Amino acid sequence: QKEVEQNSGPLSVPEGAIASLNCTYSDRGSQSFFWYRQYSGKSPELIMSIYSNGDKEDGRFTAQLNKASQYVSLLIRDSQPSDSATYLCAVNQAGTALIFGKGTTLSVSS
Amino acid sequence: GAGVSQSPSNKVTEKGKDVELRCDPISGHTALYWYRQSLGQGLEFLIYFQGNSAPDKSGLPSDRFSAERTGGSVSTLTIQRTQQEDSAVYLCASSGSGYEQYFGPGTRLTVT
User: Fold this and answer.
1) Helix, strand, coil percent content, chain A, rounded in steps of 5
2) Across the interface, which of B35, B42, B56 has its CB nearest the CB of A102?
3) A44-97 pLDDT, tens per residue?
4) Which residue among B43, B98, B102 sits closest to A100, beta carbon to beta carbon?
């Protein structure tokens, strides 16, 4: 069974720090990797996508992919209280349904 | 531009009744997905439509669940004879030429 694993948290960081969120997946055929942010009572919002090994940066967010280790991570620099949310890792083979982890809750204290 | 829209935003129904949930994907998006999220649970895939191809129904939990997509755009998810375990947030997502999926606001279904 294809699985995506994340630590549930909560991960607590002070404002301005770097938050590091991690995810592992079981299906070596996975081709697409995504991070979604979900605020309480809201739907998931896509924040990063990554398709090839290495780092991808977008503003304060950096996604890292290591297919050999079946590992995806998300770094949030200069964390803000508004970043407090649940972060969902999702993977799929191109164009198919996403397989989600259960999410990591991030709490950023001011 | 306009995102994915879903209606109703909330639905309360009695056990045993049928319900219909609607999804309007982003204009031009050919792929449409239904997921559900139960309290404390992860996001669970239900069904996937891609263009005019036969839908991937592999995630539907029982034959009480069905979905259709008319004209390659709007989709309706139907749950017959609802049960209390059907209570969840039902989420619709769409994607275009890329692989990113964009979610609608969801429909919160409560079965009493």
Assistant:
1) 5, 55, 45
2) B42
3) 999 999 999 999 999 999 999 999 999 999 999 999 999 999 999 999 987 789
4) B43
